[in-house]
TrEMBL record:
Its cofactor is Mg(2+); Zn(2+). PROSITE patterns: ALKALINE_PHOSPHATASE, PROKAR_LIPOPROTEIN. Binds 1 Mg(2+) ion. Binds 2 Zn(2+) ions. It is a lipid-anchor; GPI-anchor. SUPFAM superfamilies: Alkaline phosphatase-like. Zn(2+) binds at D77, D355, H359, D396, H397, H473. Gene3D superfamilies: Alkaline Phosphatase, subunit A. Residues 1-20 form the signal peptide. GO terms for cellular component: plasma membrane; side of membrane. It comes from Spodoptera exigua. It holds the Pfam family Alk_phosphatase. This is Alkaline phosphatase. Belongs to the alkaline phosphatase family.
């Protein structure tokens, strides 16, 4: 205690102290008398007890060293670290609390790490090269999926060389006799879910016409939807839930909700998916709305394809929850379906629209989608034992939302800062470096955004510095949360491409070292196993 005081005094005696006051106002933005929001927090004992409880929990926590039978990876697309801080504050404030002290469910996981997200040719990544990193274990070209960085974006020829294809952890799980599935709130052919199954030189090749538009042969470079239905491992996935019906249907065919398809090859890939399962004599079902999905509950077929929108699923706050399933419902049915395999499974679940809301500077939607994914994580954690199921929660890349100003404790996270800018004009606690929310200055001053007619509406854009059609991704690291067998492997700061290797280590699948190989440290043995694995996977692909 004494040394802490001495330290503070020393700092204040130094000249920097004066500057420190200027940078850090004593009671920022507040003209009201200081009020303490949570009385208990005024006691030193409160914080000491909080810390002691955390130490006790850590000491009592026993990490499972079993093989992870099941692995569920949750991906919050664009879920940057500031997004986590803002979302948890909103979570608490929705419960009537101050908010900052709240925790999302996955924030309670025992291990947290940081992943570096850059790609081979990109300082700031997209969802395609990052999906290749966190699902296939290889960093690659910006915009490419399931191929290594010898393939340039849109280079169809280069991507036909299968030695440049990289396998996903879903393939490693399948090769081990486990099952695999994919769930997303975006089009199922969008970059992140495509990382599970596609090998493609351009993430935009979601349907055949997109390949043709770039002058390529669709026989040599099949589109992503076609790969999902007809190629390994897409055609082995037991659960496929998302949006994007339009990429499976011809342009002159309307889907169940009246939207036309995008395909110009006259193929109905939903029918072809059903036919493929019939040909293989496996039970199957295609569903396109929530009622149909829920009616499967008691009699799940072996294979389920659920395409709930022509495009992406609706934002949770804008969806009709009678007809649209939530991410939690999709996750639960996926887990129940895949759990029928005694050997276990790999499931990928994406909260994919955090990214879209950020790109449009729609901060409330971005935070709400984050909280929706957190609910899905909570459901998975209830359904799966910590003893044999690994759950990993992370993001692919950051965004440029800033959490700023000097508002006081418990201040409305979606409101303006208590502070004003130099001209006395309000600014928001959550704003962006760039994006469509730019407002021109008037007489050299920022406009008063809080006076706008749609202020705080769900479609109201937060303000930005740099005008851009879409807000950009950020280059900062993303957090990784882990629970279950070998979770402590996920601690530290590392390349994002390590993630599938770490998951495979815990689950004892795929190439490289495994938790299960325990005593076998003899040199050569892992190499032999790896060779055998390569042989087996190439046989599987035939
Ligand atoms: C298909 O599966 C059913 C039930 O498992 C079985 O009775 C039937 O013989 C199978 N048909 C073919 C053609 O394999
Ligand atoms: C949601 O969809 C159902 C079924 O189509 C409809 O009856 C209901 O009115 C819709 N609710 C809203 C709020 O649009
Ligand atoms: C900004 O707009 C709000 C809401 O209309 C108003 O209360 C406030 O006085 C305005 N501030 C400035 C500096 O114009
Ligand atoms: Zn994005």
């Amino acid at each position: 205690m004494r040394s802490l005081l001495t330290c503070l005094v020393t700092v204040c005696v130094a000249a920097a102290c004066v500057r420190g006051d200027r940078y850090h106002p004593a009671d920022p933005g507040s003209r009201a008398a200081a009020t303490v929001v949570n009385r208990a927090e005024t006691s030193a004992n409160y914080w000491a007890q909080e810390a002691q409880a955390a130490i006790k929990a850590r000491l009592e926590h026993k990490e499972s060293v079993k093989k992870a039978r099941n692995v569920v990876m949750f991906l919050g697309d664009g879920m940057s670290v500031p997004t986590l801080a803002a979302a948890r504050t909103l979570l608490g404030q929705r419960r009537g609390e101050t908010g900052e002290e709240a925790k999302m469910n996955f924030e309670k996981f025992p291990t947290v790490g940081l992943a570096k997200t850059y790609c081979v040719n990109a300082q700031i990544a997209d969802s395609a090269c990052t999906a290749t990193a966190y699902l296939c274990g290889v960093k690659t070209t910006y915009g490419a999926i399931g191929v290594n960085a010898e393939v340039a974006r849109r280079d169809c020829d280069a991507s036909t060389d299968t030695s440049r294809h990289v396998a996903s952890i879903a393939e490693w799980a399948l090769a081990d006799g486990r099952d695999a599935g994919v769930v997303t709130t975006t089009r199922i052919t969008h970059a992140s879910p495509a990382g599970v199954y596609a090998k493609v030189a351009d993430r935009d090749w979601e349907h055949n016409q997109a390949v043709l538009n770039h002058g390529h042969d669709t026989d040599r470079c099949p589109d992503i939807a076609l790969q999902l239905v007809h190629k390994h491992p897409g055609n082995k996935l037991k659960v496929i839930f998302g949006g994007g019906r339009r990429n499976f249907l011809p342009i002159d065919v309307r889907d169940e909700e009246g939207e036309v398809g995008r395909r110009t090859d006259n193929r109905n890939l939903i029918r072809e998916w059903l036919q493929d399962k019939e040909d293989r004599n496996v039970t199957n079902k295609y569903v396109w709305n929530r009622q149909q999905l829920m009616s499967l509950n008691d009699d799940l077929p072996e294979y389920i394809l659920g395409l709930f929108e022509s495009n992406h699923l609706q934002y949770n706050l804008q969806a009709n929850l009678t007809t649209e399933p939530t991410l939690t419902e999709l996750t639960e049915i996926a887990i129940r379906s895949l759990s029928r395999n005694e050997k276990g499974f790999f499931l990928f679940v994406e909260g994919g629209r955090i990214d879209h809301a950020h790109h449009d500077n729609l901060v409330e939607l971005a935070l709400d989608e984050t909280l929706e994914m957190d609910k899905a994580v909570a459901r998975a954690a209830e359904l799966l034992s910590e003893d044999d199921s690994l759950i990993v929660v992370t993001a692919d890349h950051a965004h440029v939302m800033a959490f700023n100003g000097y508002s006081r404790r418990g201040h409305d996270i979606l409101g303006p800062s208590r502070d004003l800018d130099e001209d006395g004009v309000p600014y928001m606690t959550l704003s962006y470096t760039n994006g469509p929310g730019f407002r021109a200055h008037v007489d050299g001053k920022r406009p008063n955004v809080t006076a706008e007619s749609d202020y705080r509406g769900l479609q109201w854009e937060a303000h930005v510095d740099v005008p851009l059609e879409d807000e950009t991704h950020g280059g900062d690291d993303v957090a990784v949360f882990a629970r279950g067998p070998h979770h402590s492997m996920f601690t530290g700061l590392y390349e994002q491409s390590q993630l599938p290797h770490l998951m495979a280590y815990a689950a004892c699948i795929g190439p490289g070292r495994h938790a299960c190989s325990g005593a076998t440290h003899v040199l050569g043995q892992p190499v032999l196993l790896f060779a055998l694995f390569i042989l087996l996977t190439s046989l599987f692909q035939l």
